[in-house]
Amino acid sequence: MPVPAGLGRAYVLASVFVCAACGLVYELELVAMATALVGDSVTQASVVLSVMVFAMGVGSLVAKRLRCHAAAGFGYVEALLALVGGGSGIALYASFAWLGQATVALVVISFAIGVLIGAEMPLLMTLIQRIREQDAGGAVADLFAADYVGALVGGLTFPFLLLPFFGQLTGGLLTGAVNVLAGGLVVQWLFRHDLPARTRRRLLAANGCVLLLLVGGSLCVEPFERAARHAVYGGDVRVAVRTHEQELVLTGGTTPEQWRKAGELRLFQDGRLALRGREAHRSGRALVRPAMTGGPHGRVLVVGGGDGLALREVLRRPGVDSVTVVVPDPGVVRLARRDPGLRGLNGGALDDPRVRIEHADAFRWLRERARGDAPPFDVIIAALPDPASAADPKLYSQEFYGLAARALADDGRLSVPGGRTAARPRAFWTVEATLRAAGLRTCPHTPADGGRGYLVARLPGPAAEGCDAGGGRFAPGRPPVPRGPAPDLPPSTLMHPRYPD
Fold first, then answer.
1. End-to-end CA gap in the chain
2. How would you classify the pairing of strands 247-251 and 299-304?
3. Does 252 map to a domain?
4. 25 & 156 share domain
5. Interior CA angle at 128 toward 141 and 3, to 5°?
6. CA–CA separation, 206 vs 200, rounded Å?
7. Mind telling me which residue stretches traverse the membrane in this protein (predicted)?
8. For residue 454, what is the domain's CATH number?
9. CATH at residue 49
10. Inter-CA distances, 304 with 231, 325, 362, 371, 494, Å
């Protein structure tokens, strides 16, 4: 050994620490990327973790055949793991962009990374015993201690350092570069006398090629993302920005006149269609007007709606004194203020002096507000995505509606989207059942020219009786949707979310 045995063990354990941190970054990157591309974070996390843990068992069995060449085996495993794990984000994004799906790629990549991570520990056990013989229990304890501490550091590094400062793709590639350096240096330096000269040169060439690929890939991330966006959204991508919360993409022209040539304006949030230019005002009116016509509306709360469309409809009603907008991502508000297309749709509503914007999680904001003596709201508008595709199901839970009810005046109204009634009637009626479970009286309605359903809810009382209590503006000439009585469905709660993607 080029160093004393104690120092050699420390180097091996440091390598275990770094490799474990990199391995957990790969897992978190796959979960985050799959959730952004496919949705349903619970399912994606379950697929990644279960496949990866199973594959780790397979990798441990495979590593038994490499113990006679533990140093070379570990060097090749780390080089391959750095290449597969570091490039996993790019591979998953490419599969989604050009093949139209990411599930198969997610399973294959998770399995490959799991096999390689599982092969690490038997090889490291063999290497650390070569430095200095000790009982198996003590060696395993040392290795797992370094492994678990490294996993902690990797788990914290991904959301607080890599994701905000480098993004998913570049962060993954840089993690792979650290991984190949950590594994290669230990093998090439500490165990170089265990390797024949030819094997050492081959391993050095493999590590060098992987490192060059990862560094080169990090330099090409921007053109790759641009090409992938064009493959996903078409060639009319006009704006693409990454905020701390999500990726925002705008396509199409900035005015209705330009939509004929450059395509209709569309806003995508993490790949999900959040806004269409031709439907923007229609959906805003359907969500806002029924609640605003049913009584006082001087104080209004808008949950979500960072694009300003629901806010525009609110401010068009006379008698509005103040509007509070609670939106978690300031990047959406910034884009809606600056982009001429979105600003043309919202009419500059976000800059109205009556508007106060709070950048916060709506659930937490309402919960903290309930502890004080703040005046109630006359109207609450939940300008949220459809429940079946919402990334934050707690905003469609019984607990959230209960907090909203506490923030309402006695004759206040809460307006909630229920999604497309024809495509997902169960999700719509689950919203209705959840509102009733929170102690609210509901009125389902559908705009005369659309297939989306909405619900207006009130606190129990005389004003809540019947769907015509809000001025008779609910779907003129049409019954509540869908036709027939509402099915008896369980409500959605924090512990039992009921909105599958």
1. 56
2. unpaired
3. no
4. yes
5. 125
6. 10
7. 12-38, 44-63, 75-98, 104-128, 140-163, 169-191, 203-219
8. 3.40.50.150
9. 1.20.1250
10. 29, 7, 8, 22, 19
216 by Cβ neighbours in 10 Å (0-12 / 13-18 / 19+) ranks as exposed
Task: Identify whether residues 291 and 174 lie together within a single domain.
Answer: no
Spatial CB neighbours of 241, under 8 Å, sequence gap ≥ 6: 247, 248, 331, 335
Please check whether residues 204 and 332 belong to one and the same domain: no
In whole angstroms, give the CA distance from residue 132 to residue 6: 8
Residues 6+ apart with CB under 8 A from 301: 323, 324, 326, 377, 379, 380, 381, 407
The per-residue pLDDT for range 155-180, each reduced to its tens digit, is 999 999 998 889 899 999 999 999 99
- One domain for residues 206 and 301: no
Q: Are residues 302 and 388 in the same domain?
A: yes
d(CA 334, CA 336): 6
Residues 352 and 448 occupy one common structural domain: yes
Q: What's the domain range around 443?
A: 284-464
The residue written with tokens 């990199």 in the block is 22
Q: Residues 395-436: pLDDT tens digits? A: 999 999 999 999 999 999 999 998 888 778 888 899 999 999
Number of Cβ atoms within 10 Å of the Cβ of 19: 28
